[in-house]
């Protein structure tokens, strides 16, 4: 397949996954803002913006985190490249470019998401309920994902889509965890406090994994359990190990289909092997932040290698 | 002004009995009350938008996802009517290609004094870079779109020829799909010849002109300017139906004697390029150095027989509006036949006598730019105000050679769904003739309809719509 086509497929997946994350953040943020505190209501919007890496752009445009502006920023704002609207528009545009590599149902799902988004944008904002918006966005992401899974040929294009999904998801999970540890909880004495545990639950909620976590672990929410769940547990659909195993699997399928092993396959296997030999204790000994930084750098390098090998058209990195 | 209605015959659509090709459409119309009609129309619109078949109009801004209006009332030709059109279209396509091979070769037609040398060799579209080169099978224009209008039962005129990359064929195919989906019974009652073989025929045409150096099955690609182009939908639609890659300039590169595309498995050789970009953008080393769309070195590979480009660079010299006047002459000169399809009488403002006539009769004429297209930069005398006419007069006087003029034809009408019911609207026809090892024409084409009452401008950029075009099996 054309390298540019593979690149477009890869980005369709990344943008849809990113739209899903933005919607989840928005949902969690609005939920937290409903919880009363001594001073009035809690506000974790600041931390959510940090989590999504969108804080700087928001500050420039709006200043203080007022809920309504946050909703605009995370959902509708085209100045925010990671807003739901920007991501869906970019995913659909990438899809339009590679229409011939998609099934009718997949294109339909992408195009309908975009057409409905345009209708939402035309409506008066006061009539739009936030939970309706976030549900809508997550449903669109699921529809696209479902159409891909149900209808697409299991060919190289399917592999590039999945690599995009897993890479984006790995990155999102790692960043959310990192922000929780460093931004939300700056002072060490708070570790293990009620606030600490509350923030960890919020993180689970943002990842849509709260119930799954309780099924898998039971008992109190602790940092160690959550780290284990989100980093090392293969049952968790968003854990770092699940994502890396997904990337490794689909890269392997590419090598097989093309009858050619490249350096990037070995790189993915090495990252996965690292994760498999990790334990939660060792991660906390190293420091969660240090560990996650190392992980994010490693996956970014892997993404770069995938680009050089398959997406750039240069075919760099022969094994 | 009187005009011929294709369903009811007679002038001004006044005939009482439907002409035979339309005979069964009366009942269909009766069986469709207004509510059902608007329901169907809404369904068609939703389907078109859902497929993503839209058309962006250059320079108008606004909605890039605008739909071309689709009219559900079909336009019908009898088998006999079509047979004559087909002979005329193929004849013309042959003559145009013979002309192109000639003017890039010995130029016999110019030497014989049948067409002025100035019109050919001074023409902007004449590519000196390909002089002396004969493309595979002697074909310059592989897809010839010939715009035809009708003024009476047997009166057909060619309005213009499109030898480069005529667009719109996706509308021919999608309109048919839409009609079959919405009104299957019509297709049981009428014996309508299929058009969906077009993509197969196009693929065969393109593979039949593989370059000399190609051994084995040729790899065909479509070269598009990119997804911002207004015809991008059509490019991707055709690539999909033919099962070939849709590439942009950046996906191709030249290495040694060949052109390759960048794939996830490394470079893959390309043999035939169906390009949908203009000559000027093909190769920055040969044409416009600032072109980002093209492939550096492409023309060298082309001229040494390493790749075929369809349509061949330079084909545009045959579809210029001034050269158009001489096409009947080409038919006689190269084929030794009389032209089956007539030209519209045309005055060339570059000739002093013609210019005088044009300026004296502006209010009755249609004036076009020689290199214009898409219905832009034209004057329809009878539909224009005195100020518009005077403004155009100044433009013509400033640069007469840039304009041609034709009488305002009373284009035929076909019943069309409008707000108040059904009313006659003016139409034209663009069939797509395929020229490769053989010359072929699918029975149908793109019928464009001027949706505004009385309007004669059918271009989609000027408020035109499309209809399904039927050719009945006899």
Strand percentage of chain B: 15-25%
| β-strand number of chain B | 23
Radius of gyration of chain A: 20 Å
Overall body shape of chain A: globular
The unreliable regions of chain B are 56-62
Strand order of the largest sheet of chain A: 1-2
Structural class, judged by helices and strands of chain A? mainly alpha
Biggest sheet statistics of chain A: 2 strands, antiparallel
> Helix proportion of residues of chain A, in percent?
over 70%
The description of the largest β-sheet of chain B is:
5 strands, mixed
Shape of chain B: globular
Structural class of chain B: alpha+beta
Question: What descriptive keywords fit this protein?
Answer:
heterodimer, A: 319 residues, mainly alpha, 2 domains, two-stranded antiparallel ribbon, 1% strand, B: 474 residues, alpha+beta, Rossmann fold, Dna Ligase, domain 1, 23 strands, 23% strand, globular
Note down, in words, how this protein is organized.
The complex is a heterodimer of chains A (319) and B (474). Helices cover 74% and strands 1% of the residues of chain A. Chain A has 15 helices and 2 strands. In chain A, helix 1 runs parallel beside helix 8 and helix 12 (240-258) runs antiparallel to helix 13. Chain A is globular. The mean pLDDT of chain A is 87. Chain B is of the alpha+beta class. Chain B folds into 3 domains: 4-211 and 307-343 and 409-471, no CATH class; 212-306, Rossmann fold, CATH 3.40.50; 347-407, 2-Layer Sandwich (Dna Ligase, domain 1), CATH 3.30.1490. Chain B has helices at 25-30, 34-51, 79-103, 108-111, 117-121, 169-182, 184-189, 198-207, 232-242, 298-303, 327-335, 352-360, 386-398; strands at 4-5, 9-11, 70-77, 143-150, 156-162, 220-223, 245-247, 252-255, 258-263, 266-270, 272-275, 308-310, 342-343, 347-348, 365-369, 379-380, 403-407, 413-418, 421-430, 432-435, 439-441, 446-450, 464-471. In chain B, the strands form 6 sheets. Chain B has a 5-stranded mixed beta sheet with strand order 3-23-22-19-18. In chain B, helix 3 (79-103) crosses helix 11 (327-335). The longest helix of chain B has 25 residues, at 79-103. Chain B is globular. The two termini of chain B are 34 Å apart. In chain B, 45% of the residues are buried.
